[in-house]
Input
Amino acid sequence: MSGGGQYNRHAKVQSTAQSFALPLLERAAESAALPESPRPIVIADYGASTGANSTVPMKAAVQILRRRAGPARPIHVVHNDQAANDFRALFLLLESTPDGYRIDDDVFSYAAGRSFFTRVFSREHVSLGWCAIAAHWLSRVPAAVPGHVWLKRGASGPEARFAEQARADWSTFLEHRAAELLPGGQLVVVFATADEEGRCGADDCLDGLNDALKAAVRAGDVSEAEVERMILPLYFRTRAEIAAPFERGPVADQLTLIEHAREVSPDPLWAAYEATGDAGAYARAFTGWLRSFSESTVTSALDAGRPERERQALLDALYARVQGEVERAPERARSRWNMAALRIGRR
Amino acid sequence: MSGGGQYNRHAKVQSTAQSFALPLLERAAESAALPESPRPIVIADYGASTGANSTVPMKAAVQILRRRAGPARPIHVVHNDQAANDFRALFLLLESTPDGYRIDDDVFSYAAGRSFFTRVFSREHVSLGWCAIAAHWLSRVPAAVPGHVWLKRGASGPEARFAEQARADWSTFLEHRAAELLPGGQLVVVFATADEEGRCGADDCLDGLNDALKAAVRAGDVSEAEVERMILPLYFRTRAEIAAPFERGPVADQLTLIEHAREVSPDPLWAAYEATGDAGAYARAFTGWLRSFSESTVTSALDAGRPERERQALLDALYARVQGEVERAPERARSRWNMAALRIGRR
Output
C-alpha cells in the first residue's frame, strides 16, 4: 500500500464493498462476550491501513458496546496493520474526525504495528474483531505469474501454489484470532471472494496496469526482469475455501461460522461516472484507487539501484498511461466485486 | 521533531542523558504494583518519539517484570507520542531490533498517538511509566521571545509566562498520570533541569541556529516575521518547580516523589571529538542532533505559501551554516546537561 493520505483519499471502493458487512458487525457487537470489569473492552481493527474505512464501523461498534457496558467502562480500539503502515496518518485522521468513534472520554485508540499473520494480542484479550478488505492479501507471493501482474490473468501454472498459500494463510489468520478472542468473542471478516466459476467480478481490473508495464518495457523504461517480479499477492477464495477451516483442522473446535453473507458490490466510481458523464474524473478516481493498492508492489520490484527521483517519475508515467487509457475507454475499467462477509464466534 | 530516521540517528545525546535514570526505572519495576491476573501488565513509554531510546530501558523493565510475574503473563509496552509522530519508524525499529525487549511471545508492543497532556490510558491501567527527555517540552509557546529562538537567550520579558506555562503543563501531566497509574504503580521521569542559578548547562546550544537565522534574514532568504515565530517551546524547571506539585495541589494526595536524583550529563559528541580530533565529524553530529529537535519549529513557522522544495533547500542551507560555524569553533557548541530523574509512586 502507498502512503497514508493516498490510501485515505482513494478508499471509496473499499468503503462501498464493506458496507454490507456493517449489520454483521452490529450483531456481533450486540452478542459478543465482554470481559469482567475492570478489564477494558477491546475491539481489534485488523488491517486498518490508515483508518479511512475504520471510523464508521468502529463508531457503530463502540455505540453498541457503550450501551451494553454502561458509562465509564473503558473501550479500547486497537488498529492493526503491518509495521510499515502509515500509523501517523491514522492517528492524525482520528484527531481530525470530530464525529469519530471516540464518543466519550472512556474510548481510547491504539495501534499495533505487526502482521496479522502473527499474534497481535495476548490470549483471550479481544471481545470484538473486524477485518475489512484485507484478508484477501496473501502473506507472500508464492510463485511467479507468467505474463501478468495478477494470477487471474496470467498464464496457467501457478494456480495450485497460490491456492495452497491462500489455504495456509487463512488457517494461520484464524488460529491467531482464535487465540486472541475471549471465549464468546466475535470476529467479522469482509473480503473479496470468487464465485462458482472462480470469478471475482473485477478480474480485468489490473489489465490496464499490466498493459502500461508492457509498454514501459518496450520503451526501455523498465526491464523485463523487474516486471516479472511485479506480482500482486492477491487471492480471492471460493465459498468452500472460506468455509473449510471451520469444518476441520486446528480451529474447527474453537471457531464457529455464524453467518456467511455474500453480495455483489457495485462500483461507486462507475456510479459517479454514469451520473456526470465525466470520463476524465472517472479515470482519475479509478487510477487513484488502483495506485493506492498496487504502487508498493511496483516500486519494490524495481532494481535497488534506481534513485528515488527516477522511481517517482517512472510511477507517475505508468499510472498516467493507465489513466489515459481509462479515459479513452471507461467501460474497460468498470468493476463489480463479489464480496463475502463472515461473522465468526469463538466458543 | 523531524521524521523518524532522522531522530533515531541523532538520539545519542538523549541516550546519554537518560542513562543515569535507568537504576530508578529498575527499582520502579521491582516495586511497582501489578494488576491481578489475567489483566496484562502495562508499561507506558511516554514521549517515545521513534523508539531509538526506548529499547534499552523497556528491555530492562520487561526483564524484571517477567521475573516477578512469571512466564506467560502478558506484558504490554505502549509507546506514546503525539499523533504526528512517526510511529511507522517506531514499529519498523522494533521489528529490526533482534535483541529488543520482546524477549518472549507474551510481550506485545502498541502505540498511542495522543499528546501526553491528555489522557492516554483508562483509569488505573498502568503499572510502570517511563518518560525520558520529553517533559521539558511545553504544550505550546506561551509568549513571543524577542531576539532569539529560545527563552534562555532572548530579551527579558516573557520569563513569567513561560514559567506559568511550565507550571500548568507539569501539573496537567501529573494529573493524567495519577489517573492512569494503578494504585501502587510507579513512574520515572527524566528531563533537563535548571540549577540554582537557572542554568541548564547548555544555555548557548541554540545560539548557532539563531545566528544562522539572522544571517538568512540579512540575505533575504527568510523574513523577520517568520523568524519571530520560531520559538522552541522548551523550559527547564528548577528543583523547586519540579517538586511543587507533590507538596500541594491536585495530585499531592495521590503521588509521592520517592526519589529525585540530579546529575550533570557529559556531551557524548564532545567526548568523541576529544578522542578523534575530527572537528568535521563533531560538527556533523552536533548539527544532526540539533536539527532532529529544532527543524519542526523552523519549518512550521515559515510562510504557508512556500513550496516544499524551497522549504527543504532553506532548511538545508540553514543547518549547513550551523555546521560550518561549529566546525570552525567546536568549543562553542560543547554542552553539558543538568539532568533530573524522578521516581514517582501512586498511592
Observations:
- Chain A touches chain B at residues 38-40, 74, 76, 78, 83-88, 90-92, 94-95, 105-106, 108-114, 119-125 (CB under 8 Å).
- Chain A has a mean pLDDT of 93.
